[in-house]
Amino acid sequence: MKFKKCGFLLFFAMMFCFAIPNFASAAVVDLLEGKTGTLGSKEFKNMTDGDKNTYEKVYTKEPIMFDLGDVYTVDKFTINETKGTGSENPASLYVKYYDSNKKVLASYTKFTFTEKINDVRYVSIQYQYLNPIWIYEFKVYGTTDKVTDVENLKAETGLNQVTLSWNNPDTPKFTGVNIYRDKYSLVKLDKSKNSYVVKGLESAKEYEFTVKSIDENGFETSGATKKVTTKMPVLPPPDKVFVTPQNGKLVIAWNGVSSPYFKGYNVYVDGKKINDKPLNSSKLIVNNLENDKSYKVQISTVNKNDVEGEKSKEVSEKPSSSALEVEYDVKMPFSPLDLLTSSVSLLAILGGFVLLSIAIIWFKPLKELIVKAVRKGKDKK
Which positions carry the signal peptide feature in this UniProt record (predicted)? Predict the structure, then answer.
């Protein structure tokens, strides 16, 4: 009896030991994350990009098809898992599973459903009711022992760097990741790492980063990809601000800020912004002010992303009824460069006449010769 009992316990222990590796080697993952759906020539990426804030407007009677890239056992699917579907009507909604020959294995008219289906290679979704449905998340969960793409890839942008972070696949065959920037290899990381800072980038430039999982044989997955644009520099304020008092007004001028990221200026009087939108000029007349009252003026610069920089140092001035009145509103019809160019051209035209006049005055033989020629001309007439 004891022998039978020991034999049973030994058999149970062996079964348990063999079962553990099989259990540990499989993981439930979102098989659709990073995959692209297609409908003819149109692509759908936003509902499977792992970002719950991006979406696709789905309104089609034809299926949007996703290729899982391999055959999997599917456990369930969800639509708008985080945000919920609220009062959306699943009428005319179809989610379908297909085998490698695109034969339909299962079809559902629900926003979420749990059912284990084997040998799934393709998944499709379609919807055509009254209005388009906004799909932020379309997830298909499946069990696999293969190394899959990293999930939840995020990119936090800085001025000259991007910080990437992600969730690594939960499988023993996963050994690390390769990171690419615009198709060029950047770095290889082991499986203990799930973030990386890419430095030395240009400001306000778009980059594409791809993180590819690596298995124990060194093979890569297709990878999860993010496109991001680095931040634009915050521009400094003008280095000099000039305030000229007038009767009941102030004339404000400042040195311009030169930058390819420049959009305009904001003007502040006593801490209050007085312009509705950024100014392109470097001068402003503020009217309807009280004479003999001090006003503090500051200028800031705005970049093309509408990010405002620091304000300039305060410059204080008082309008005065006795101030010399100058007509600042009259705009010159030409710039200083135009004036210089015109002056040089005029000098080139008149220069010859001036030199000839000087020669006539100071060179007497030439003067006498010209006088004789003029007299002969008159005599002939």
Answer: 1-26
